[in-house]
């Protein structure tokens, strides 16, 4: 049963990966979709592949022009005649604002890399004077509006968003609705000619009003979705940068940047606008997004040009903004591209396949129904009056049969299936946004529901990232930093304190700034902040002489080297290199240590072992360990590398980073849900193990391994080792990438990976779901991720998994509900046409049923919030059937019950219920319609739980579901009791209303009985991690 034809067909034609889809796979499934009622609406969210190819070609063309302009022709520019140079004139507006350079001239300097023009204007300092932006204090906030008015806003021109009426227009492109509108118009014309006004127009008008209602409800639903996506898109584009304004450093939104702003750059940042390098260290820029050049470029004062859209690969710097928005090449490039749309999710593609299969069946049934109705009509006509005599009433009858056939297609082609995925994902993404998770790609939310493994960082994700120095070892003394800062001056000499403070303040990428209130604020990473806070306390009220050094070379920290180094020019002459980082690495670079008097002595082997024991004891207390060392240098030249040996050990810091509240419970939730959590960290293995045990990640039978050991394993050894790995310490980004690749290829795991650094980008890209940290994460990491965890909290990741599972299960509920309606509506009308020559459900009634099962059904079932039960079952594996045996059982069981009820009413209703009189047929047909609708109402409630008997649990907590059920019932009463003229119904007695509700409610009893029939027992135990059974026994089963 698992390999039914439908599943095989879907796998062959509608199977795409969640990420990195090939163009061939995308074109294959599009070609397989043959029956579409409204292509414009169905594929509204699907990217135009031809447009995407066109955009890629256009981008390459623009990049080539930029590359030629910047690199190939640059050498030729110096030989060009000055007469050919463009003249720029200052306008009155620019002069009156106090600026001395025009916006276009200023923008051209950076975009054209025009060194000659820069020198003419006096270099970076000259430019800053001409735009009234002091390099120390930055711009004044009072000038911001003036600068935006003259030099532009940092936004590029985007396509205007679609209005509500455009969605109405899209909904009107449904081919079946257009045909029905034509039928309705003909019906009105013929009806008026034969029956007069107003009776002759009721049937046609009823169809037109139904179509209008369908179109409006569809358009409202689609428009609300578009607003949700628009809001999420705004959040995706929110990038904050550090600037200096009014002499103080602050965070501003990228769109609020103005010409003259002083921007602070660090590793992983995206350059927010065109500008000039002011100062910095080892600034390496990746310009591939602009020029297509893969080789990174070093930026210095001799080569100071920075372009918007490029990325900081290494180093740190300050830059002066000279052009924003549409005056930058990046702005012009982005405005020319159509953005191509986002790749469709695997579930959307699969449901397009399901819709195609059902659509073909529905089309066949509609054609057969029409042929049977026409055949019976012609036979009856031939027998009674002959085929040569035709009356206007005959034309209306044929038209009515055609309208019924077309309406069967409306009901049978489940156009709403793939769109229900979009609706469910939009709803989940909006809820996740409220819960501090920004989903960047639609497929990520869906895929996260199938995650079987999470490879998580430690710092900031499992821990709070609020770090403090808890212990410090220096000069053979280990002290508690919180209690004995005052005593350190007694224990050690002034020279040692001075050297320690020099190492803390000079070898730091963070900055101590004074706020408007006069208090010190530290801007930088949590680790650096902890060290600087300790340094400030130790420094006290003393004059900070140790900050008087001049930095001459900096090597910023990165996750590969795991160290940060700096060379400083000492106030009394001479050079000194400071180095800090991973304890074992720094200790390996040392051959000396400093004593309590500040004298240097050899670091003997016994002392080395003693020091390692100190590091391990700190780490075993779950402290992050960091070593600080220095080496004095005789001289220094720019080409000289920072030394890597001969250092003198100064101190070992033990930094406390407590485990986040709720992490232990979140890890337990993962284990219960069949999701394995692995910690991958750059920290010391003892620190990692201590934290992992505290979180519940490392168990007695689990393995903790260091990155170098992992890298040395052969593929065969890795295959045996990887399932047992729970902690990987001292790992490089490459180790994380290798682990993810092997988990996916060797074990077919669906892997989620967290990352915050630039070097994490490959692992984030390779994983099934990349999770970037919103606070600690770099822009490069966020760009490579599928989800941004805005609060950096592991518990938020579990929430994404909960909603991912909810999306998958909700869509399955909706598919089960809709297929049941489809089967019953098709069979009832077809069988009735064959046997009685009429269709009990009219076009208007079928349109109403279509709205119940399509738009309203999707709103009700696709927006169910997650519950705790979802995290007590294993994840869905790759390749598992989407329409499960459980779903088939429920569809077939409910379908058979409804067919028996409606068939009985159709063929024996008059006799059983003693209905007689001239309108008996109309009463029976109304009762059939009413019972059919109430069967769907109760089946919708049934569909809330596919496996559990209690379908009412939490029903009132989901107000959307409750409201839709209520609206459906109210409208049904109105249609039957008051709109009979248009809907071909008559008012029913209270007894028949009770009968309709009772017949519908029996669906709940049928559902409970069906759920007691085991259908998944044939699956192997290996497919049921944690011993999960789809139909659990006991109270939980109810």
From TrEMBL:
Main location per the UniProt record: membrane
Topological category with respect to the lipid bilayer: Multi-pass membrane protein
Annotated Cation-transporting P-type ATPase N-terminal domain residues: 97-192
Keyword field contains Zinc: no
SUPFAM superfamilies per record: Calcium ATPase, transduction domain A (SSF81653), Calcium ATPase, transmembrane domain M (SSF81665), HAD-like (SSF56784), Metal cation-transporting ATPase, ATP-binding domain N (SSF81660)
Record's catalysed reaction(s): Ca(2+)(in) + ATP + H2O = Ca(2+)(out) + ADP + phosphate + H(+)
Any one of the GO CC terms: plasma membrane
Family: Belongs to the cation transport ATPase (P-type) (TC 3.A.3) family. Type IIB subfamily.
Protein name: Calcium-transporting ATPase
């Amino acid at each position: 049963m698992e390999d039914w034809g439908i599943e095989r067909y879907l796998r062959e034609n509608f199977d795409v990966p969640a990420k990195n889809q090939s163009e061939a796979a995308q074109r294959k499934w599009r070609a397989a979709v043959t029956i579409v009622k409204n292509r414009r609406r169905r594929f509204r969210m699907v990217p135009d592949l031809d447009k995407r190819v066109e955009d890629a070609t256009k981008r390459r063309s623009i990049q080539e022009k930029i590359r030629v302009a910047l690199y190939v022709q640059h050498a030729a520019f110096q030989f060009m005649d000055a007469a050919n140079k463009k003249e720029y004139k200052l306008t009155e507006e620019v002069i009156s604002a106090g600026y001395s350079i025009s916006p276009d001239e200023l923008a051209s300097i950076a975009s054209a890399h025009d060194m000659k023009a820069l020198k003419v204007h006096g270099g970076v300092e000259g430019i800053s004077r001409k735009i009234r932006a002091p390099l120390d204090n930055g711009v004044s906030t009072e000038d911001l509006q003036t600068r935006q008015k003259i030099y532009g806003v940092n936004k590029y021109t985007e396509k205007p968003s679609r209005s509500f009426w455009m969605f109405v227009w899209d909904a009107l492109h449904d081919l079946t609705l257009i045909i029905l509108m034509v039928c309705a118009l003909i019906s009105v014309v013929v009806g008026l000619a034969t029956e007069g006004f107003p009776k002759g127009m009721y049937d046609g008008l009823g169809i037109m009003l139904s179509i209008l209602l369908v179109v409006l409800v569809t358009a409202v639903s689609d428009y609300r979705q578009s607003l949700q996506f628009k809001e999420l898109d705004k959040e995706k584009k929110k990038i904050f940068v550090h600037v200096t304004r009014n002499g103080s450093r602050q965070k501003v939104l990228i769109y609020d940047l103005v010409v003259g702003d002083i921007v602070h750059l660090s590793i992983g940042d995206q350059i927010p606008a065109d500008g000039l390098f002011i100062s910095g260290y080892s600034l390496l820029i990746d310009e591939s997004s602009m020029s297509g050049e893969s080789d990174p470029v070093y930026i210095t004062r001799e080569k100071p040009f920075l372009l918007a859209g490029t990325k900081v690969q290494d180093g740190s710097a300050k830059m002066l903004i000279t052009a924003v928005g549409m005056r930058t090449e990046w702005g012009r490039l982005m405005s020319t591209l159509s953005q191509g749309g986002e790749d469709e999710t695997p579930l959307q593609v699969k449901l397009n396949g399901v819709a195609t299969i059902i659509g073909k069946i529905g089309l066949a049934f509609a054609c057969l129904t029409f042929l049977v109705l026409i055949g019976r009509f012609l036979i009856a006509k031939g027998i009674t009056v002959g085929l040569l005599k035709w009356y206007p009433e005959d034309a209306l009858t044929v038209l009515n049969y055609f309208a019924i056939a077309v309406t069967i297609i409306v009901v049978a082609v489940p156009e709403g299936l793939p769109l229900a995925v979009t609706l469910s994902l939009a709803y989940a993404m909006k809820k996740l946004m409220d819960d501090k998770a920004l989903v960047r790609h639609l497929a990520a939310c869906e895929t996260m529901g199938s995650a079987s493994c999470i490879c998580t960082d430690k710092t900031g994700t499992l821990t709070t990232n609020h770090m403090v120095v808890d212990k410090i070892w220096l000069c053979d003394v280990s002290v508690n930093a919180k209690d004995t800062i005052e005593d350190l001056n007694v224990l050690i000499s002034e020279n040692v304190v001075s050297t320690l403070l020099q190492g803390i303040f000079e070898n730091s990428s963070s900055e101590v700034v004074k706020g408007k209130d006069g208090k010190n604020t530290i801007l930088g990473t949590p680790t650096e902040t902890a060290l600087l806070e300790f340094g400030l306390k130790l420094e006290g009220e003393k004059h900070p002489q140790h900050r008087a050094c001049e930095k001459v070379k900096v090597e910023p920290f990165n996750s590969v080297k795991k160290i940060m180094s700096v060379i400083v020019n000492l106030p009394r002459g001479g050079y000194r290199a400071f180095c800090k980082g991973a304890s074992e690495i720094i200790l390996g670079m040392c051959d000396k240590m400093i004593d309590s008097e500040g004298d240097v002595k050899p670091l003997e082997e016994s002392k080395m072992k003693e020091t390692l024991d100190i590091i391990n004891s700190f780490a075993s207390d779950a402290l992050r360990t960091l070593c600080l060392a220095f080496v004095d240098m005789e001289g220094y030249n720019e080409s000289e590398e920072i030394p890597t040996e001969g250092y003198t050990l100064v101190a070992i810091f033990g930094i406390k980073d407590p485990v986040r509240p709720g992490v232990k419970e979140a890890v337990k939730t993962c284990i219960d849900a069949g999701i394995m959590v692995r910690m991958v960290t750059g920290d010391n293995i003892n620190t990692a193990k201590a934290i992992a045990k505290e979180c519940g990640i490392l168990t007695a039978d689990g393995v903790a391994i260091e990155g170098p050991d992992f890298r040395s394993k052969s593929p065969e050894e890795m295959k045996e080792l990887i399932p047992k790995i729970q902690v990987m310490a001292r790992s490089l980004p490459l180790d994380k990438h290798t682990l993810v690749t092997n988990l996916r290829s060797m074990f077919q795991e669906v892997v989620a990976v967290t990352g915050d650094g630039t070097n994490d980008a490959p692992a984030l890209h390779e994983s099934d779901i990349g999770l970037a940290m919103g606070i600690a994460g770099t822009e490069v990491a966020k760009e490579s991720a599928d989800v941004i965890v805005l609060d950096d909290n592991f518990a938020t990741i579990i929430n994404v998994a909960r909603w991912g599972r909810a999306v998958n299960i909700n869509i399955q509920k909706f598919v089960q509900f809709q297929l049941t309606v489809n089967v019953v509506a098709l069979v009832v009308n077809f069988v009735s046409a064959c046997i009685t020559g009429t269709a009990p459900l009219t076009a208007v009634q079928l349109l109403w049923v279509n709205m119940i099962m399509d738009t309203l059904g999707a709103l009700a079932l696709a927006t169910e919030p997650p519950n705790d039960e979802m995290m007590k079952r294993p994840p869905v594996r790759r390749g598992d059937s989407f329409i499960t045996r459980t779903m088939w059982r429920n569809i077939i069981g409910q379908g058979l019950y409804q067919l028996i009820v409606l068939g009985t009413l159709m063929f024996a209703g008059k006799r059983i219920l003693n209905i007689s009189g001239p309108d008996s047929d109309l009463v029976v047909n109304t009762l059939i319609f009413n019972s059919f609708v109430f069967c769907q109402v109760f089946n919708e409630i049934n569909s809330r739980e596919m496996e559990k008997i209690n379908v009412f649990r939490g029903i009132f907590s989901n107000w959307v579901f409750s409201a839709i059920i209520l609206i459906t019932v109210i409208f049904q009463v109105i249609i039957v009791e008051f709109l009979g003229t248009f809907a071909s119904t008559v008012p029913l007695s209270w007894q028949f209303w009770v009968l309709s509700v009772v017949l519908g409610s029996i669906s709940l009893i049928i559902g409970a009985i069906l759920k007691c029939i085991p259908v998944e027992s044939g699956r192997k135990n290996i497919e049921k991690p944690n011993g999960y059974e789809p139909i659990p026994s006991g109270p939980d089963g109810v």
